[in-house]
Amino acid sequence: MKMLVIGDEQRTRRYLPALPVVEQCELVVVPRGTSDDQILEKHADADFIMADAISLVSAALIAGMPNLKLIHSEGVAFNAIDCKAAADAGVYVCNNAGVNAGAVAEQAVLLMLGCLRGVVSGHAAVMGGQQIQTKERLMVQGIRELGDCTVGLIGFGAIAQATAQRLAPFGCKLLYNKRSRLSEEEEQRLGVTFATVEQIAATADIVSLHCPVTPQTVNLVDADFLAAMKPSAILINTARGEIVDQQALAQALTSGQIAMAGLDTLSPEPVQLDHPLLAAGDQVAQRLVLSPHIGGVTEGMFHRAHTWVWENVARVAAGERPCNVVNGL
Question: What is the pTM of this model?
Answer without folding.
Answer: 0.85
